[in-house]
Design goal:
Length: 184
């Protein structure tokens, strides 16, 4: 009897209602917004390129969350001696990715132009999954030079790390606006 005097309580949304609301929110996202706001979509798209990315999960240190893919052979006869592409998504929260990074590790520069074209196609293909025009990124990768640019929902940066006893690397990072880039 005492409970009825408390008045009506606010009805909590059911699990189905919560899922429907999430589906509607996700459906309204596009471009890099979808990459950053829906970690599962970012990972699924990378897996289309055989990166075999694990779950976006808590990680030790900084950044707090990571999803790491297995290296993919872009050019060469084996993973030990060939040129490899890799994928990493990082963020400070479980709900949102702050940065997506593609790295090309160059161990064999005999067919560098071919390697760069293949890597550029992987990055552009990933962007295309989210209906993003990646032509400027593709051109920068093929030019094999540091560059920066702006996409509608994020910033991209291409950097190179020269060899000092280690293979050269070409790194393409897409960063969510307002996010601080942390090392992956």
């Amino acid at each position: 009897m005492a409970l009825s005097a408390c008045g009506p309580t606010a009805k909590e949304p059911t699990l189905l209602e919560q899922e429907a609301a999430q589906e509607n929110r996700v459906a309204s996202l596009s471009g890099l917004d979808r990459v950053f706001e829906v970690p599962g979509a970012a990972i699924d798209a990378a897996n289309l390129f055989d990166f075999q990315v694990g779950p976006y999960a808590p990680a030790q240190g900084s950044p707090a969350f990571r999803a790491i893919g297995k290296p993919v052979l872009i050019y060469g006869e084996s993973r030990e001696t060939g040129n490899l592409a890799s994928f990493v998504a990082t963020g400070s929260t479980a709900e949102q990715i702050d940065a997506v990074t593609f790295t090309l590790t160059i161990k064999d520069d005999r067919e560098l132009d071919l390697t760069l074209r293949r890597f550029a196609r992987v990055v552009r293909g990933y962007l295309k999954r989210f209906e993003i025009d990646g032509a400027q990124v593709e051109a920068a990768v093929e030019a094999n030079d540091a560059a920066k640019g702006q996409l509608p929902e994020g910033i991209w940066e291409l950097s190179r790390t020269p060899a000092k006893g280690n293979p050269d690397q070409l790194i393409v990072t897409f960063t969510r606006p307002g996010a601080t880039r942390q090392s992956s």
